[in-house]
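User: Is it possible to get a 3D structure for a protein together with its bound compound? The compound here is inosinic acid. I've pasted both below.
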Amino acid sequence: MPNKSYLDPSTALEHLKTYDHSDGLSISELMNSRIHGGLTYNDFLMLPGKIDFAAGEVTTESKITRNVVLKTPFMSSPMDTVTEGEMAISMALLGGIGVIHHNQTPEAQAAMVRAVKRHENGFITDPVVLSPKHLVEDVLDVKERLGFSGIPITDTGSLGGKLLGIVTNRDVQFRPETLPLSEVMTTQLVTAPEGITLVEANHILRDSKKGKLPIVDKEGRLTSLLARSDLLKNQTYPLASKRPESKQLYAAAAVGTRPADRDRLKLLVEAGLDIVVIDSSQGNSIFQIDMIKWIKSTFPKLEVIAGNVVTREQAASLIVAGADGLRVGMGSGSICITQEVMAVGRPQATSVHAVAEFSNQFGVPVIADGGIGNVGHIVKALSLGAGAVMMGGLLAGTTEAPGEYFYHEGKRVKAYRGMGSLEAMEQGKPIPPSAKVSGVGAGSKPSKPAKSTSHENAATSRYFSESSAVKVAQGVSGDVQDKGSIKAFLPYLHTGLQHSFQDIGVRNVQELHDGVRAGNVRFELRTASAQVEGGVHGLHSYTKRLFA
Ligand code: IMP
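Assistant: Yes, that's possible. Here is the predicted structure of the complex:
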């Protein structure tokens, strides 16, 4: 072998400087390579940087509008199979935000906003309440349906009524089912005053050895309830999305751009709304521009997320009108057939970069909406300049998503449908379970029909099809597998994000954005075979468990 002279290994770092650029591609090189087409999240990767910190040190705080910073960049879509009150509360507790859909009456939507604003972790703000005139059989019925029997009794039989007693399992055991509760209820009550902290209330509950602690106002009216069973599982939520002044959870909800939506929005604002999302598949319209201007002059403190847009020209109009945030995506959603039917849209990575690069200069954050299928997609959206991601399909099928589980081909699933699907546009018609359900097991239930309402249909307005004699679908309807609770799933996304940031070598979203802009965070394009290589391959079979 001829003797080859090598460079001195101790000069390797120095030697890097002899190259005129770092390994991989800068963001503009990556985006210019799209001469061959727009990019999706799967078309590129980030190159690893240097790890000199623990993943736990990574923070994921990010701006979703001009004035709202969340501790995690996660949003749930305003879709009737994704975000209602329960999802919105849980998203906010876990550090994100859920946008309550508007395919329901304004009153129902406002009630969900109110529930988010009133939520105090640990206090049950919508407990089951009965009146003294109810019967023992009513308690047995609640126990059968909901699994508990500690029920407060008020004069009106509802929350806000004067607290008269409480009925527990032992009060109704062996008693005739037709006996009124006035005869069996316990009237020796331990209560706590409204405004008490969770810690203080928990102490009273512990010392009283009771199962439930009713919380009452000065006039003795029931305002909420604390349950011993919850005491044990009471988690604290250090990432919770709260207004700094009031410490109440942030509430967000979607509206359309029709005149009736102004009345809807008034109700939502009265209920405490913080952020309104103007829901349209093509946001650059005179209707939306007028709506933004009207909102800004009528409710100057309300944060307005406008959209959807995929070009900087669309974005510019909405920024001028006063948007505080922009929702980006057209045709990338998992249930979406817009690109196929309308021939309009844009691959999502290219859209997010194009809009974010423009709007971030005006301090208007971008929400990457649609097509998020895993943690990697979230990191990529953020690397392209997004402040947050919005997820539909990834969060559908969780316990907190609306609808009941049912069985489809032996799998436990929940319905998930596009807001531009015919089913959503003809709201009120459930997805026919007979057409879908097979391998039905005990307890299977069809998807929940959308609530019957007298409001104008939100889906038709999102897709500008209310005036058409023929409804043209832009989405499909289907189902997604049971994903368990978002109380486990969102922490997985958050921890996944921390580990990914660590690999890239950035400690927070700002460092990621700065690093990309400065050309220090580097990218690589993935060929079709690189994508195959990057997935699981060559195995006869395998199980894919994502977190434990
Ligand atoms: P996913 O997270 O990929 O499932 O996409 C969810 C997003 O798709 C939503 O936030 C909406 O922006 C969008 N979307 C919802 N319904 C439809 C539809 O029917 N057609 C097209 N896009 C939709």
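Residues 100 and 253 are 4 Å apart (CA to CA). The chain is about 30% helix and 15% strand.
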